[in-house]
Amino acid sequence: MTITTIVVLAHALLGILFMAGLIGRWIVLGLSQRATDLPSMKTLAAAAGPFERLVIVVPTFVLLFGVVAAFLQGRSVLGPLTGGSVNWLFVSLLLFLSPLPLVPLVFLPRGRVFEAAMATAEVNGGITPSTRPRGAIPWSGPRTSTSSPR
After folding, report:
1. Is the pLDDT of residue 19 over 90?
2. pTM
């Protein structure tokens, strides 16, 4: 096994780890938004922490290993800007970097809204329609089990 193969394999595995963290985060935060009581919501929000760290840290390594893999394979990451014949690397780099403005413009403000809603819920002693963050699942009260006839 060559160093190039190891770097490419690490790049692919880190990409899979990133996607697993993203999907896990979505699932746990979705369950947290649907929680009907404050302790469950807090527990689920805390359970999202490890997934949050994966989603924050791993993409840096995906990018690093991807650039190193391209270099080891003799490919130009900047493709058409440097006269390279492989343009998909440049496009993938643009796609990778394009969501970066979403962090300060969308994700951080939504996190503040969620934290404020959580603090309000703690003061009020529970989750109410007014303490749910905007964009959350609409309040429908406690869930009851209903079965439909087949």
Report:
1. yes
2. 0.74
